[in-house]
Amino acid sequence: MHITVMGTGYVGLVVGAGLADFGLIVTCVDIDKDKINSLAEGKIPIFEPGLQDLVRRNVERRRLSFSTDIKHSIRNSLVIFVAVGTDMRQDGVADLSQIWSAADLIADSMEEYKVVVVKSSVPVGTAASLNARMRQSLSSRSPGTGASEFDVVSNPEFLREGSAVEDFFHPNRIVIGTASERAVAIAKDIYRPLYLIETPFVFTTWESAELTKYAANAFLALKVSFVNELANLCDAVGPNADVHVIAHSLGLDRRIGPKFLHPGPGFGGYCFPKDTRALIEAARSYGEEFRTVEAAVAVNDRQFLRVVDKVRKGLESLEGKVVAILGLSFKMNTDDVRESRSVKICEALLAENCSLRLFDPAGMAQARRVLKGDRVTFCSDSDEAVEGSDAVVIGTEWNEFRNLDLRRVKEHMRGDLLVDARNIFDIAKAKSVGFRYYGMGRGGGEQKVPALEQTAAENVLATTE
Ligand code: NAD
Questions:
Q1: What distance in angstroms lies between residue 9's CA and the mean position of ligand 1's atoms?
Q2: Residues of the chain with CATH 3.40.50.720
Q3: Ligand 1 centroid to 78 CA: how many Å?
Q4: Which of 166, 212, 414, 448 has its CA 20 to 30 A from that of 127?
Q5: 35 CB under 6 A from ligand 1?
């Protein structure tokens, strides 16, 4: 079976390479010629564990290729996966322009039956509109062009950046939304290897499939904002309230579960911020309010400022101070800085006349595009970043930061403030080398956590990502 994946980004590239690994013949296409050219030369444009090997293996076995000749690829494929971007408009509504141009291109190019699989995250009603738009476009084509039937399938993607390859091969579920039996049979064929390992399959309508994706992200966003507010309350209560101990106890309740209960500077990345807003706006367009999600977004919009406040409090004034930020990507194991809270912290500190020394293990190239100016210094490692700084902020929970030699960090700094926005350090250890430590919801850093409870906290840490 020949497959085209339209949009070779974080999702399209992983899905394309993964489907090729199932033995299907896949062409990944994109309107970004540079991206396709570098992929054709064997260069992977994103940092994603395991992706390089997966791509190389399938290119070598001639099951995976890259092309900018989108029309040709569509014509040669039975199934077209649409994995283009669905950015957020200023008003929070999902911008579907990339979806519509992909749909127009498919309708323009097709000469026989196609299955159009919408992988992108889209508001409820998009598959129906796409179906109507393509039918309209095909019916206006002059007779004799060979244009024919097609089916639309809503098949949302749930993979997480940083573990995308693992998630593709071991998903929690596959959701297939369509009324067409023919398309269901083809989708089952495509995902047969997952069916064989007993992945749960949900067959449903376009609308339920579309809503499932936004609902999943919105629900996780609720958990994150909930635990962040709990952490803020712990900070206010003082030394004897530790959010990790509470989160651990919450997580032991099977109705709640331990995941996504790790406090920090708020959720970021490409998906959560835009998908929560898009769900709110989609609800509004149906005359409904989604107040729980509105609250989660409102909490999140302010949460990174808590980190800025801690730096301000610790340094008394931010004016002219030098702050090292370790970690710029929106979470560990990705180079993606889209909507990264760490970048937002940087922007807020720059606005208050701080100078920044920045380091991220993978996201430097992406961060350079968004953080600019004479007061921004990009450093080659964390040693260089902390040199001469008044404060160090942990912006992303990369494993390599967890094992930093805090004594050495302290020696290279001018000041003694450690703002651990990801709660990755042992408070007692940080204090023992002379740091003033501010975490998130760990009693403002003044608390001594007993050894046993610290272990419990680390269990929560280990299971949240
Ligand atoms: P991305 O920005 O990394 O990639 C989108 C790609 O589509 C770009 O390379 C762009 O050039 C290309 N494109 C745009 N219009 C095109 C067209 N007409 N034809 C061919 N290519 C075109 O985006 P992403 O992170 O891969 O996300 C894609 C979709 O998947 C979004 O809807 C997103 O919400 C959803 N999603 C993302 C993730 C994630 O973790 N990134 C997870 C699940 C779902």
A1: 5
A2: 2-204, 216-464
A3: 21
A4: 166
A5: yes
Q: Looking at ligand 1, which atom is closest to the CA of residue 156?
A: 44
Tell me what pLDDT residue 145 has: 59
227-237 confidence digits (pLDDT tens): 999 999 999 99
Nearest to 232 by CA among 269, 266, 272: 266
* Residues in contact with 241: Cβ distance below 8 Å, sequence separation at least 6, in sequence order: 233, 234, 441, 443, 447
Pick out the chain residues at pLDDT < 70: 142-147, 444-465
- What is 216-464's CATH number, 3.30.428.10, 3.30.300.30, 3.40.50.720, 3.40.50.2300? 3.40.50.720
Per the annotation, the verdict on 354 as an active-site residue is no
Burial state string for 98-118 with b = 16 or more CB within 10 A and e = fewer than 16:
bbeebbebbbbbbeeebbbbb
Per-residue pLDDT, 99 = 98
Two tokens at 6? 């339209």
Q: What integer pLDDT is reported at residue 140 of this predicted model?
A: 85
- Select from 373, 383, 327 the least CA-distant residue to 347: 373
CB contact burial 390-415 (16+ within 10 A = b; e otherwise):
bbbbbbbbbeebeebebeebbebbeb
Q: What is the largest CA-CA distance in the chain?
A: 80
**Phi and psi torsions of 69, nearest 5°:** -85, 80
Question: Would the CB of 177 count as within 6 Å of ligand 1?
Answer: no
Whole-model pTM: value is: 0.93
Whether 157 lines ligand 1, by a CB cut-off of 6 Å, is: yes
Tokens of 353: 């006349």
State the distance from the centre of ligand 1 to the C-alpha of 59, rounded, in angstroms: 21
